[in-house]
Amino acid sequence: MDEPNGEALWEGPEERPAERLDAAAPEAVRTDAGDADSAGEDAAGEDAAREVRAGEDAAEDASADPARAQSHRAGQRAPRPARRITSKDIEVLLLGGERTLKRREVAAAAGVSLYSARKLWRALGMPNFTDDDLAFTQAELEPLKVMPRLVREGKLTEEAAISVARAIGQMTDRMVVWQVEALVEDMISSQGMTDSEARVALLERLPDLVGPLEEMLVYSWHRQLAAGVQRLVVRAQAGLDSSEEGRDGTEDDAPLPLARAVGFADLVSYTSLSRRMNERTLAQLVQRFENRCSEIIAVGGGRLVKTIGDEVLYIAETPAAGAQIALALSKEFAEDEILPQCRVAMVWGRVLSRLGDIYGPTVNLAARLTAIAEPGQVLVDDVTAKALAGDERFVLEHREPEMVRGFGEIHPVALRHGTGPGIVLD
To answer: Residue 214 and residue 147: Cα distance in Å, rounded?
Structure first.
């Protein structure tokens, strides 16, 4: 049966209706077909919710246990124990206490069905828990109520809530892996530790790093959101208007909503180089490549969309900004004493932005141009060349037409630096 607002119910893996996040059920735990149904389950849900509330009250008196009283907020870390820190200590520090709650108890406390709670947990990247697993802490109850509350208040739809939760889960998972490996690599190189020694030593360092890293995470999110609002909302129409130049509306990307300069940079001979390197040297090469690209793209006013081993994908808001970044990337790696040269291509067109990535013919064409570029060369297509024509900062050299898979005959144009300093790194 549909909800009062007429929107469809969730469909789960079993392809059957289930309760919505905004279907409040504080007095009972509701289940789906995959969970055991029994006559006493509603009463059990009420008992579970009462136990959780009692646990919340008891948690307020946990001052004798610094780990249990740990807050997620930056700067409120539990005192470090005198004994050697274990992974269990780190878990208690990060989760705010011991795992004492089962999934049904948490779902009941959040006022949602177990089915809907499981959808949220999966979106956040959590593993499956059984009814018998002690999987959650008292401190996790309030954060896990956030998304259901936003749905009930009408601020998000279910679909948006799950999509946002999935974005948080995927991005923070990648961020954590990156940060841990960066810290381990630093201890290996600066202190002469082995990989296993560095990973054990990291446990001792983490309690002093959690608060500061959390502060930086929140600060960076605020900055990125502020920039994203300008880029994706305020200036979106201006980009579409400027992208009309040189187009007749019949292009494959015409229906797409965002106008962007899309660029690829690809290291030359990366595959053969990687076969001759040990694991640590290869990791240092990739890190050097990503660091250089990130700096140039950021200084040039672009955004690094993703890195794929030996390749980076970036976007910029104007064709000129995209061209400046492309030239700076080519120049940087031509002069680098360690990294090989790179092939670069940039296309001005329209894209679809979803799930932190970009899609559309413009992206595909930029990738195809990168593949046919010579080492150290920057290529653009003829539409992009028209958008850059007359700008003294760029020199355009038309090449012979080429057949490109998926696009037929295209007219690549080599881009070189003209007047002006280009992108200057401090």
So the answer is: 21
CA atoms within 13 A on the CB side of 19: 22
Within a domain: 292: yes
Predicted local distance difference test score (pLDDT) of residue 80: 54
pLDDT tens string 371-390: 999 999 999 999 899 999 98
Round the CA-based radius of gyration of the chain to a whole number and report it: 26
Residues 263 and 380 in one domain: yes
Q: Is residue 113 part of a domain?
A: yes
Kindly state whether residues 205 and 139 are assigned to the same domain: no
Question: Torsion over CA of 44, 47, 52 and 55, rounded to 10 degrees?
Answer: -140
Long-range contacts of 139-142 (CB under 8 A, 24+ apart): 139/59, 139/70, 139/71, 139/72, 139/95, 139/96, 139/97, 140/95, 140/96, 140/101, 140/106, 141/52, 141/56, 141/101, 141/106, 141/109, 141/110
Tell me whether strands 357-359 and 342-354 are parallel, antiparallel or unpaired: antiparallel
- How far apart CA 199 and CA 194 sit, in angstroms, is 9
What is the rounded distance in angstroms from the CA atom of residue 268 to the CA atom of residue 244?
34
pLDDT in tens, 329-364: 999 999 988 888 899 999 999 898 887 888 999 999
* Domain coverage including residue 217: 175-233
Q: Please tell me the total count of domains within the chain.
A: 3
CA distance 284 to 293: 14
Q: Is 422 among the domain residues?
A: no
Task: Examine residue 265 and state whether it is found in any structural domain, yes or no.
Answer: yes
Rounded to whole angstroms, how far apart are CA atoms 250 and 384? 16
Give how far the C-alpha of residue 276 lies from the chain's centroid of Cα atoms, to the nearest Å.
Answer: 31
Q: Within this chain, do residues 124 and 254 fall inside the same structural domain, yes or no?
A: no
Q: Quick count: other Cβ atoms within 10 Å of Cβ 240?
A: 14
Query: Is the same domain home to 43 and 126?
Result: yes
Burial (CB < 10 A; 0-12, 13-18, 19+), residue 375, is: middle
Pair (370, 259) in one structural domain? yes
